[in-house]
Amino acid sequence: MSAAIVGARETEMVGVIPDKSAIELHAEAARAALADAGLTKDDIDGVLCAGQSPVAVAEYLGITPTYIDGTSVGGCSFMIHVRHAAAAIAAGLCTTALVTHGESGRSRVGMGGFGQSPQMLGSQFESPYGVAGPPTRFTLPFLRHMHEYGTTHEQLASVAVATRRWAETNPRAMMREPITVDDVLNSRIIAYPFHLLECCLVTDGGGALVVVSAERAKDFPKKPVYVLGTGESSEHSMISQMHDFTESRAFKVSGASAFAEAGIERSDIDHAMFYDAFAHTPMFALEALGFVGKGESGPFFEEMRTAPGGDFPLNTNGGGLSYTHTGMYGMFAIQESVRQLRGEAANQLPGVRTSIAHGVGGMFHAAGTLILTNDERA
Amino acid sequence: MPKRPLPQPTPETQEFWDGARRHELRLQRCNACGRAYFFPRPFCPRCASDDVGWFTASGKARLYSYVISHRPAPGFKDDVPYVIAVVELEEGPRMMTNIVGVEPKPENLPIDLPLQVTWERQSDEITLPLFEPSGGAP
Ligand SMILES: [Zn+2]
Asked: Which among A166, A256, A335, B2 would be 20 to 30 A from B133, CA to CA?
């Protein structure tokens, strides 16, 4: 392993923040992460972010970087940024990289528009059919999974129930009321077969990370979190062109790359964060990353193995379904992995040595995977 | 005032939309590897050959997957709920569409339901390929 995360913080508030713009949320998180690492902005020579341009974020913070990366492929961008930061540091392009996220997803302060040219491929071949955003596109593959593998409505709902149980004991989570499978199935239908409680929240917030070489990792105040394995991939820009609606090719490629680089087995993972934009997303991750066989994720969730007390603690912050979801949630998945590995999490698990943070970009468009550890001998 | 957000063809997609106006589902096929493909491009996405040509598809398809949207998207306020589907054409490629001619209920829409293209004129330039059950067994 070559890199380590030595600073990691979220904005002070996550949820509803109408008095801050998107770029200010980047900056607030960045300044908190710098303080966490005991650094100032003048120590930063690499700037990576999505949503906003890294040029704008560097300018806003007063940084003149030697390395910039504006990879913006949706919610997994930040997993990919950590991967690129590690590579850039190893190549000598920068020494101290800042990865930032800020999004006013709910309050829409200082956000770009949703507008897209009617000549874009998605505008020609998907928009005419009434796909108004992620709830009607991201969800399209799932009935095929149900058909091929007998996955049930109750199993899909179980994902939301298990995730809520973690949120119940996280004071920062937006949705903390206990829910049952019946509650989920009785909530309003958004896009059949998906109900309201199977769709992520829409919130404001931000987060930031500081990445340095592994050799320097112990020079900082917090317990280092080492980058053990990384992966990224992409598949399609239109969900209708996904090769197989029962599995994500991008997830498989990204996950396989991360495990190959880490040189560990699935059974070595102590804690997992799988981006949960909709309740089926972690099901697809569980299968594509090889933790269960194809089509086996439904019973796994139904048995509550991912909930508190289960043998596969997943999305322990409460996830995008119940904790927060700004739009590009991947940063918050990484933040929870770091907290668990530092021993700082609200729902702290005992003895966490390895954590996996797997993100999706767009509607299964792209993927990014990080395998992290607090064990310097790994 | 068109009721849906309508596409603006680009040079590579113009033939598809010209065909749609004539009620012809125009696809491309690679002469090197024999595969039909969609969306339009002047080369084969599978084998990269640029020996490709247009042909008119049968219009037969099966229901690959779908959602029943309860969100009134722009142009769909009077149509909620409506079916957004991905269909697999007889020739192999898949495309997004709406399923019409059937009440939007899951029991009416089994996966793999046989479908047939039907055309809905939106403007002088744009006619959309929609699909309806063809009446056969799934
Ligand atoms: Zn070919």
From this structure: B2
